[in-house]
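Minutes, project check-in
Item: structure for the 473-residue chain
Input as provided by the requester:
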Amino acid sequence: MRLLPPVFTAKSAISPVSHDVAKTINVSHVSSDLNNTDAANALTPLTDPLTKTAIYPTLSGSYLPKEQTEALATELNELYKQVMDSLGSDDARYIQRVYSAVVYSELVARGLLAAAGRMSSWQKTTATWLLATSLLSFSKILNNMELGHNVMHGQFDWMQHPHLNSKKFDWDIVCPAPLWQHSHNFLHHTFTNIVGRDHDVGYHLIRVTDEQPWSPEDRYNLLKTAILALGFEWAVAFHDIQISADEYAHSPQFDDIMQAKSQALFAKIARQVGKDYVVLPATIGLLLGKRSAISTLSGNIIANITRNLWTWAVIFCGHFTDQAHIYAQLEDTNIQAESKGEWYVRQILGSSNIKGGKWFHILTGNLSHQIEHHIFPDMPANHYARIAPQVQDICKKYGLSYNTGRFGHQLKQVIGRIQHFSQPTEAERLSYLETQNANKHLKATKSVVGVALHYLSFTNLVTNYLPFKLRHL
């Protein structure tokens, strides 16, 4: 049985951050007192229907009437309680086995990488290196997804384990756990898919909805996506720094907050880069020679890239398929005004699942059940597959889409979405040009005003100050 209450959201664990984040962020919210007509109208895309289709829907209001929303919340709350009350030794053994698999697969992989440089033939070297790199990629993926992501969500805090808990565990990537927990556990899971509030919508780099204004840089959406995928852990690492620079801009603690976060980030980068690209290859090189150092270094590089690509693909397939709903900002209100039922609906409509077998789900960290994860982020992820049919039945009962499909199908939709929003409609292109012209006009006006003020200041000096000085000579 559980020893501790579930942890719903994890906030930044960096001690100098005492600023109340929730009070500094407002979120778009629409009253739940909408009738069926309002709910239907809320689904209308907020663009010209002749140039944009509803394939990439944007919500501008509550999807369900209040009564249905609250009834849905009651059913999901009961499902959540049933699972959380059943947690026990089997779940503890499961996450400990995952942890052991991560540790032992990494040790074996690193041993094989070192041995690859000592093989007598090119064929044996290549075969051993491929096996070792695949095993190390597996270890890093498992560490990142099923272990790190889920433990740092607080899914196993009830165990009171000394290091498999959300406060102490840190994963094998360049992003420190506290920074990720702030940008992901708190911001992303609270403001899911709300443009301007959920910074995971495009990661400040890629346009994925018509709610994001088009600019010429968006023509390179696919190229930027490829770069993001290859270095995904680096994007995740700097993501919270970028967010916090805006979030805390007006806080009196800004300098302390940013200094603490920056120090944590660069310390983690130094440890990760030092481990994979300096210390391990150098140590192996000193012990076994140059070839073993090269096989170790190259294996580490490829394993990290493989993990980055896999993580990117799983995350994007869970959030940016065709029917993943985006929420438009309307009027600023307090997030507390949103009911639990409305929050559930937003999570369901904004997420997508991926079909697959048991090992596929494990390697995705069970984020292949993104819908279940988003409605129950602190539920141990090994239960998602079991409750998925029940969640799907509840969605069907209340007329909510339950977006799921095979990995290839979902990934194809993601790429299609990214490509779609790289090109503007005629209205978006004209809007961009008008904005540019307005900016040019504003700059020109500011220049004229600046010259005028400068002239007036000079005239004032000549007509008032100098005669005054001359009269008193």
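Outcome recorded: The beta strands are 27-28, 58-59, 326-327, 332-333, 353-355, 404-406.
No further action items on this chain.
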